[in-house]
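Homework help board

Subject: predicted structure for assignment chain

Our instructor gave us this sequence and asked us to write out the predicted structure in token form, then describe one feature. I got the tokens but I'm not sure how to describe them. Can anyone check?
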Amino acid sequence: MPLSHSVVLRLAATAIATTSVGFGVNAILRPDHALTFFEFHPPTSVLDKQMVDSLMAIYGVRDIFMGAAIYAASYFGTRSTLGWILIAASGVAFADGFVCWTHGQGHWNHWGYAPMIAVAGSLLLGVFDRL
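My token output:
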């Protein structure tokens, strides 16, 4: 059986989706805590805090959407669809890390897992089936 057909990969994708949904819910319900993953401190002014909380809600909805897309592809889609969605999700994690890197902190909180998601996506696409 080719590696891309492994049930473990779909289970890994489900774990990634669950993590993404968890981060999203956390960002919506606890924006100050979610900022710790970026190593940013909550703003002190009321107007700035309202803006950051709103942006964290947007970030949370984005993460929940990514998790839902991964769930849908895992349960109803093809392996290649799931693989490409995982690669796209790894790009989001890389971009989040890049933004943090431009601010001098927090980038490894994102760059640490981006390659794992990309590898899972690549495995689903069959990149390593011929090895």
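Reply (TA_rk): Your tokens look well-formed. For the description, you could write something like this. The chain has a mean pLDDT of 93. That's the kind of observation they're looking for.
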